[in-house]
């Protein structure tokens, strides 16, 4: 059965202010009730110089291949990492096997 979940929060950590929000949807495709798609965004104000902020946008799709195996491609775009580096793109693929 499809379901949608949304979360957002603001945080203060070591004098750094930040905020994050994300959405997750399960059962996007017919017959794929255990698959999950999600996206999120996070922002942090930093005190390191440069832009003094970092923003991350992420999206993923978790495919439940079998009852015990899942595969999850993920892509993240990081604007101004640590507030002082050039923008970055991170791409990953996670395999999970549960007993």
Automatic annotation (TrEMBL):
One of its GO terms (biological process) is carbohydrate transport. It holds the Pfam family OprB. GO terms for cellular component: membrane. GO terms for molecular function: porin activity. Gene3D superfamilies: Carbohydrate-selective porin OprB. Transmembrane segments: none annotated. InterPro entries: Carb-sel_porin_OprB (IPR007049), OprB_sf (IPR038673). Belongs to the OprB family. This is Carbohydrate-selective porin, OprB family. It comes from Novipirellula artificiosorum. The lineage of its organism: Bacteria, Pseudomonadati, Planctomycetota, Planctomycetia, Pirellulales.
């Amino acid at each position: 059965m499809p379901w949608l979940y949304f979360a957002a929060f603001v945080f203060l950590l070591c004098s750094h202010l930040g905020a994050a929000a994300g959405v997750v949807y399960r059962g996007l495709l017919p017959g794929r009730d255990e698959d999950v798609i999600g996206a999120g965004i996070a922002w942090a104000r930093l005190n390191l110089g440069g832009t003094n902020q970092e923003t991350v946008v992420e999206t993923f799709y978790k495919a439940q291949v079998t009852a015990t195996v899942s595969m999850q491609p993920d892509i993240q775009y990081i604007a101004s990492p640590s507030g002082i580096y050039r923008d970055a793109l991170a791409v990953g693929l996670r395999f999970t096997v549960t007993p």
